[in-house]
Amino acid sequence: MAEHKEKEGQSILIQIRNKELEIQARIEEARREAEKIVEKAKKEADALIEAARQEAEKELEKIRKEEIDKAEALAAEIVREAEQEAEEIKRSAAEAAEEIARSLIAEFLEPSL
Q1: If you write DSSP's letter for every residue of 16-85 in order, what string do you get?
Q2: Is the whole-model pTM more than 0.85?
């Protein structure tokens, strides 16, 4: 009978050991699965970050072009206004020169008193 109880005790110990091994295997599998999930999440996060970076670069380039266009339009307007002002100054100078010439001619052509 003692032998039977000893075998029964060993059998229970073997069952406990087998259960421990089974639990360890499950834990290891769960750990590997968790690592896969974490790795996948990291890759997805990296992809999102890269997509956001690219989108930000596109938006920055768009804004840069818009600002350059605004600056070029402003510069063109300033040049147009300067050209108009220059034309006006030329006309005024020509009119003034003509008036001075008339005045001088009139002064020289008038008989002196």
Answers
A1: HHHHHHHHHHHHHHHHHHHHHHHHHHHHHHHHHHHHHHHHHHHHHHHHHHHHHHHHHHHHHHHHHHHHHH
A2: no
